[in-house]
Amino acid sequence: MTLPCERYNAIKRTENFLKDLMDPKKTPRVPREIRHQAYYCLRHYPGGYNLDVLATMCPTVLETPNPIDEVSMLIYGYEVKKNVN
User: Fold this and answer.
1) Residues in the chain with pLDDT values less than 70
2) Where are the chain's structural domains?
3) Under 8 Å between Cβ of 29 and 17
4) Measuring CA to CA, how many Å separate 16 from each of 3, 20, 38, 48, 71?
5) ∠24-30-33 over CA atoms, to 5°?
6) Is 0.70 surpassed by the pTM of this model?
7) What's the gap between Cα 68 and its chain centre?
8) What tens digit of pLDDT does each residue of 39-52 get?
9) Are 11 and 51 a contacting pair, CB within 8 Å?
10) What CA–CA distance (Å, rounded) separates 64 from 73?
């Protein structure tokens, strides 16, 4: 059984892995096409803040050690609605 905190950590580790794939100093001898694929995967990858918001809104799916406070959630909701309109 996978715990919400394990899902959160897996997403963060995947982000770091893809970033390492893009860096020739950290991962030499990786084909250019693989580096491009890592870049495209990260283009719309959820950032740390978005992951924290998701964890706060859906704690049964993701769980972060530092949940976001209610004021930050209100501001996030406002920003999302503002960008939709």
Assistant:
1) 1, 65-69, 73, 85
2) 4-84
3) no
4) 20, 6, 11, 12, 29
5) 105
6) yes
7) 15
8) 999 999 998 889 88
9) yes
10) 15
